[in-house]
Amino acid sequence: MKVWELLSIPMRSDMRALAGLTFLLVLHLCAPAGLVAKVFYAKEEALRAAFPEADVIDKQTFFLTDDQQKQVETLARTRLDSKLVTLYIGKRGQKPLGYAMIDVHNVRTLPEAVMVVLSPEGRVASTLILAFYEPLEYLPNERWLKQFDQAKLIPDLRVGGRIAGITGATLTARAMTESVRKVLALYQVLIAKGGG
User: Fold this and answer.
1) What would the pLDDT profile of 16-37 be if each residue is shown by its tens digit?
2) What is the pTM of this model?
3) Torsion of CA 86, 78, 19, 169, to 10 degrees
């Protein structure tokens, strides 16, 4: 069984997150000498950075129906690796400050973990790279990530459209753009349409 198949087996969201983080830790410990991998943020630290004014950060787990999965994949123009989705909601009092989702995916042959934060209206508020296991020369810089700020899900939200590529790191640019599109599509299906 391949690792990504193991991570897509239906299980509680906390167990899936633990499996994903365990995989990243094992990968880090078993990486060949000379391979530099970087973990930038732990999940809790990233969520606090995403919602610094929040009194509470709620976690909501969804198991997508076949129809919801199809809707998300059509909107995102990419495949989902799992029907299990964990959404974090930053709140001040009862007012939502925004939503965040973490996506772990392979860039070329090694994984990266990214968190996409959305405003209450469903626009990208920020993107944060939590861990990057490809060579660091393929890591997108903060200026490049700012291209996603205020983005909404439109056909032109793609590399070569609204999003500029990264010279020598095309796969990184595409993987990050797909993550943002997935999160925006999940927002549309689960939050905007009232599925949650």
Assistant:
1) 555 555 555 554 554 444 455 6
2) 0.80
3) -120
